[in-house]
Design brief:
Blueprint lengths: L1 H16 L16 H30 L8 H16 L4 E3 L2 E3 L8 H17 L2 H4 L10 H36 L6 E2 L1 H22 L4 H6 L3 H31 L1 H11 L2 H28 L4 E2 L4 E3 L2 E3 L28 H16 L7 H24 L3 E2 L6 E2 L2 H32 L3 H21 L17 H6 L12 H6 L41
Antiparallel strand pairs: 1-2, 1-3, 2-7, 4-8, 5-6
Helix pairs in contact: 1-2, 2-3, 2-4, 2-6, 3-6, 4-7, 6-7, 9-11, 9-12, 9-13, 11-13, 12-13, 12-14, 13-14
Length: 539
């Protein structure tokens, strides 16, 4: 897709270059303004996405040419446009009600295309040169904060540059997709397209700065800690929901297989049905997360699937729904899943305390509980996106209740995160307080050793700092200390030679030790070195 965008950007310039007398000049090296790059990226994303969905719809139309997917090629294209709007979670009205139960798996296609388009937009506008990832060392904090604010502002501008034209083009698609049966909600289409393009465009632009750690460093330390804690808790809850769905599919595999056999869709229809169920699998994962949180979910008015009990009625003949449990009480071991939100909160609290420890013991539990609040808000948004009405009547309420899920996750995760953050913060502060001074000074000593080694290599210091031989006295010591004698049994061979041959060589008269000899370690060739320790006074 990036190659297609590059072609769209360079095509006008290539056409002008073929006209006699018209040259590109220095424009070949220039870059497009950010709004122009965003408009090109948005147009390319919509074009590629509609092409993919039109191809899939055409295959389904050929497999079932009975008006199910539209009458003729215009109907096929209109159906593809409706699927594109549904991929952004924009609902539409039909006769007898409203359709809001849309597959979350369809978000993958526009999300992937928008991410690629956002990366291309950032490179095309040279945002990497305007977003330096690092400053020189020892830069003042004011300069670092100013750089962070400039980066966040530029990232936000890039997100708006991609989202604004993307939403406007989506409004045109919503107008084209209208027919006598379905009428898309234009307001929902504009809002959903803008939000999705803005979020993905911001992430893609920030990713051009550097790795994910550099992206997180754009945020203040406390906001970064809350972001990581919320992401970890949400990921643990969703992983638990996925495991619950897989276990339910395994235990009720016979019911799922029986529903698949009743539909008798054929090979192509079976493939499309399997694809549809895969697109609804993220919805089921969010429903599993709501089940773990406690409120559960409903599949119709007056129904409930929760750890406290199951009450269901008639459900559509979708094989994935065969994994729903039977009506009645829930086995006691299933109540163990209620401990997962508390475990997720404990992990999130430790992450919050480690990333941004609080200097006071009272603040850490509050920040941990606040991470639980943000996790509850995220869970509520996911619950709202995963459910919705399916026409009217009894199926007007399908999926979990957003406010119930948000409140339950907020309390469960928040309390556990507050306790674990307080304990982790207390352990960190206690470890710092009990750290010995020698251990604290170890980095200083290590740095000094490195500097000394480097100085010895360039000749500024001796490589081996061993003590010199002999005894060295300073001025104060020479006035108060006697002259040291290294060897008391030293004999003067010059005096014995002057005594004459009558003296026996094997008998030598004892001599008192010389008080004026400090060191004779250099007496290797018959020479005696006399050192006057008081010579410094006469210099």
């Amino acid at each position: 897709m990036t190659a297609l965008i590059d072609h769209l950007r360079t095509a006008p310039r290539a056409v002008l270059g073929k006209i006699p007398g018209v040259t590109g000049g220095d424009d070949d090296e220039s870059r497009r303004p950010l709004p122009v790059s965003g408009m090109l990226a948005a147009a390319a994303t919509l074009g590629v996405g509609l092409a993919v969905l039109t191809t899939l719809t055409l295959v389904g139309w050929m497999a079932a040419p009975r008006g199910t997917l539209g009458q003729g090629l215009p109907g096929v294209f209109r159906t593809a446009a409706q699927l594109w709007l549904a991929a952004h979670h924009a609902g539409f009205a039909i006769s007898g009600g409203r359709v809001g139960l849309l597959p979350l798996g369809l978000l993958v296609l526009p999300g992937f295309l928008l991410y690629k388009a956002g990366r291309w937009m950032a490179r095309d506008a040279d945002l990497r040169l305007r977003l330096p990832a690092r400053l020189p060392k020892n830069s003042p904090k004011e300069k670092a904060h100013a750089r962070r604010r400039a980066q966040l502002l530029l990232v936000g501008q890039a997100g708006v540059s991609l989202a604004a034209p993307y939403a406007l083009l989506a409004g045109l698609i919503a107008l084209v997709a209208q027919n006598d049966v379905t009428q898309p909600f234009i307001g929902e289409a504009l809002l959903s397209h803008f939000l999705l393009a803005f979020v993905v465009g911001v992430l893609a632009t920030a990713r051009t700065i550097g790795p994910w750690r550099s992206m997180l460093r754009l945020l203040p330390e406390r906001v970064r800690a809350l972001t990581v804690g919320t992401a970890v808790a949400t990921a643990i809850m969703l992983a638990g929901g996925l495991m619950l769905v897989l276990v339910a599919l395994v235990l009720n595999f016979q019911d799922v297989r029986a529903l698949s056999g009743q539909l008798n869709t054929g090979f192509v229809g079976g493939v499309l049905l399997l694809l549809l169920q895969g697109l609804y699998l993220p919805n089921a994962v969010v429903w599993g997360m709501s089940y773990i949180a406690g409120p559960g979910f409903a599949f119709g008015t007056g129904t409930l699937v929760a750890p406290t009990g199951v009450q269901l009625g008639m459900v559509p003949s979708l094989p994935l729904l065969g994994a729903l449990p039977d009506s009645g009480p829930v086995p006691a071991p299933m109540m163990a899943v209620l401990a997962l939100p508390f475990a997720a909160g404990a992990v999130a609290g430790v992450m919050v305390a480690r990333i941004a420890p609080s200097p006071s013991y009272e603040a850490a539990p509050l920040w941990g509980f606040f991470s639980g609040v943000t996790t509850g808000l995220v869970a509520g948004v996911l619950a709202a996106l995963s459910g919705g009405p399916l026409r009217g009547g009894r199926l007007a309420a399908v999926g979990p209740s957003p406010w119930e899920v948000a409140l339950s996750v907020c309390l469960e995760v928040g309390v556990a995160a507050g306790i674990s953050a307080g304990v982790a913060n207390w352990l960190l502060l206690s470890r710092k307080a009990s750290k010995p001074l020698n251990a604290a000074a170890a980095p200083v000593r290590k740095a000094g050793a490195v500097l000394a080694k480097a100085a010895s290599k360039v000749g500024l210091a001796e490589a081996d700092a061993r003590p010199l031989p002999g005894h060295w006295m300073d001025a104060t010591e020479s006035d108060t200390q006697p002259i040291p004698v290294i060897r008391d049994d030293w004999q003067d061979e010059h005096a014995s030679a002057a005594a004459g041959p009558d003296t026996a060589p094997h008998v030598r008269p004892p001599r008192p030790p010389r008080k004026d000899i400090v060191d004779e370690s250099d007496d290797r060739g018959g020479h005696v070195i006399y050192i006057d320790p008081y010579a410094w006074d006469r210099d």
